Amino acid sequence: MRNKIYIQIIVGISMLILTSPTGAQDEQWLQYHSEREAQRIVGDMGASNPKVVSDKPKGVELPDFKCDEPFFARWPTPMVASSGLWTAFDRQNKLGRPYDLLYIDSNGDGSLADESAIASYEVDYRSSRRTTFGPIKLILKGEDGPITYHINIEFLNYTGRKYLYIRAAGWYEGAVTVAGTKKHCVLIDHNANGTFNDKSLNAGECDRIRIGEKGSKDSLFVGNYIEIDDVLYQPDIARDGAYIKLSKAEDVKFGNIRLPETITEFSAGGENGLFTLKPDKGTGSLPLGRYRVNHWAIERKDEKGKKWKMQGEGFSNKGDFDITEVKEAELSIGEPIISTIELQNRSGTRAFSHNLKGRLGERIELTSDGAQPRAPKLNIKSKDDTYDRTFSFEYG
Known about the structure:
It is a single chain. The protein is mostly beta strands and 396 residues long. 7% of the residues lie in helices and 46% in strands. The protein contains 2 helices and 30 strands. Strands 19, 20, 22, 23, 24 and 28 form a 6-stranded antiparallel sheet that branches. Strands 2-11-12-13-14 form a 5-stranded antiparallel sheet, with no helix packed on it. The protein has a 4-stranded antiparallel sheet with strand order 1-17-16-15, with no helix packed on it. The protein starts with a helix and ends with a strand.
């Protein structure tokens, strides 16, 4: 009997050894990094902008503040049970000086009284008393238990106006295998809410992913699909960013889109991800779903062979469209571009500004051989010709 039991145990262990790696192969684990200069190092990091208030939050234990007028803000994140963490801004200097101390509910227990003050690492006395903090370590709730996450905070204290920018100070990256080839993957919490798998029609609310060469800054939207080497995959990204799974997309249905034939490049994104097309005589195709135009471009050469590129980007919901099987989507984008001159009278001095906008209100960028061309000129002439002067606009 003892021999029989012994054999059964060995078989059980053997089966576990044989089957466990097979399931684990799908999960490709990444490494977490955090830096004060994360935005500069990684790029493509947006910000969370919680409202700053002077009213003390109800039900939150507070520390002994050094100043009489602290400010408060609640950072929204689904990675804690309360769906947000309270912050408080204090100052150790005299009235009218910058708010250079920060309290944050780093352990998510709903109290600031058990937190130590974090001193600002940078204070700008010239620009609206700007103070910056970070990287700040937080303990959030991951898929397999508590995880470490970092944020950077920028607080601007204008008279009568307060602005708060909270950005991710951490990201995930590492090597992944795609179709037998090693590539580098980076996951970015673009909307700075503690998660790495947010999908959205709004570009500012979806996270970012890069799969390609190490050091590349080309980001795609986290979505239902991602195109790698002209092959469509379905990514499964851990909510806390720790791993990614990739499976080849099967039986994906596409619909057609029609654009002006002058468009040489077109990009659109949504919950399906971000796609960039090189239209063929104004036509292209996308997986079925709802999208928002990300950018369009027109490239031409002038009579001297100089290459010009005009690009439209920064679309509102006016750039939303649907890709369906039954009807081809048609977009009126590109030329003509709207050029406007604005005049402002400032204490007897008149200031002119020149703006370019697209047909849907998008901003326009114009380059010549990859560089910004010379600014246009403005000629002002009176009816009786007594005044006739030409001025040059300046960028910035």
